[in-house]
Queue: 2 jobs
Job 1
Amino acid sequence: MILTGLAGFFAFLIFYDLFKGSKPLRHYDAFDIGYLITLTTLCVACAWTPYKFWTFEKTLSKHASTFAKRPGVNVTCTSVFESIFDQYDMTNAGTAYIEAGEIVFQHGWCKQFMEYLEDPAQPSEKELFSMHVFTHEVMHIRGESDERKTDCQAIQRNHLLGEQLGINRRIARRNAVKYYKTQYPKHPYFSKDCGPRKKYDERLSGSIWRDL
Ligand SMILES: [Zn+2]
């Protein structure tokens, strides 16, 4: 928000300088041109991050809608200032508002997820978790509110949603299995009922269970 405001402020200064009319463009000296180049650079630098997150939110919204089979799902990432105290809070990484069809991703996790999708081959623990958070919230959007059940639905679909987002099938599967084996047992929503032939097993085709 602050960066967007600053970008707008610099854009205003550029337009003010160009159109105030006190000096025709052809009379601009090196200082004037240097001033305009500096303002333009600052404007683009401030606008770049908000733009990148805005396009990422649009992409995630589209994929969440398709995966949840629910039109109009809206995904937003909080600003860095909104999540300054809980950048990597694991239980508050994302929030789904089931009725409204909205998912809110904490800034830090949103950034991790962006980095994960750019290079999913060797993910860090945080990147791996960010994929799971997204799938978890999409499962809520389908209507499930029980946390352990939702989490197990996500465990069984991390690779499918990853693939839909463009990750290579083999990598998406390997990462989903890695998350299940390494991070899931330590998570507060862990359930012993989440596994092959257990209570929450949905017996999906292409399940990750056979790769365990
Ligand atoms: Zn949840």
Note: Residues 136, 140, 147, 150 surround zinc ion (CB under 6 Å).
Job 2
Amino acid sequence: MPDTLLRAEGLTAGYNGVPAIRDLDLSVGEGEVVSLLGPNGAGKTTTLLALVGLVPAMAGTVTALGERVTHKRPHLLARRGVRLVPDDRGIFYGLSVRDHLRLARRRADSVRRAAVLDRFPALAELESRKVGLLSGGEQQMLAIAVALLAAPRVLMVDEMSLGLAPKIVQAMLPAIRDLAREEGIAVLLVEQHVELALAVSDRAVVLNHGRAVLAGQAADLLAGRDRLESAYFGADEFAADSVVEGVS
Ligand SMILES: Nc1ncnc2c1ncn2[C@@H]1O[C@H](COP(=O)(O)OP(=O)(O)O)[C@@H](O)[C@H]1O
Ligand SMILES: [Mg+2]
């Protein structure tokens, strides 16, 4: 078993006192890719925000790198190596690629910068380009590269493939898989492309109406399509007791 770098236990969080996720258990180990799946509004983004403390936990705990971080401030978590690439990619359209890399690498050394640009060679050729003029795939690459410059231990990416052509998604997801394996990063992916995500994941959790309705090994979920589809579309029959064992 890989070392668990990120763990949520009984996590409940939401907005204005109303939970959007309830009693969620989730873990990601070193070098592992775990997908967080589920229909729109299921609570995927809220989960990521709660894991980094941007949405306060109403109950339960979050542990990152072995330390209880439930009510820690988000920037402290970032400094410890827990990075979130948000669904708007967190980039600035008026700045160039070089500006982003420069801002991000204040603390990164040149070895790190070379390693990151090695992974995304296309970015090196686009350094002077304004981000607003990049394609969606290039913007996403930049967002991930910026996160990687900080040498994260835990990387969460919210809807990486939003607005990307399937061909680009098919290229980028395996790159994330390699990244996790080669650098031992614990990756939590929120994805709409269920099959593509499962193909590069070790495990997955399906959320519906703020609850984990199905979880297990990615290969098992891929093999059990019917169960997966019911978890997605008709959550009613999936009470908490039908959650697959061995999630965390
Ligand atoms: N800032 C917010 N204020 C109030 N409710 C929110 C906010 N963001 C999300 N929600 C609600 O929380 C629920 C889960 O949303 P979200 O986590 O964004 O789902 P997903 O990412 O799976 O599409 C939805 O019902 C959504 O309307
Ligand atoms: Mg979302």
Note: The chain has two domains: 4-81+152-242, 93-151.
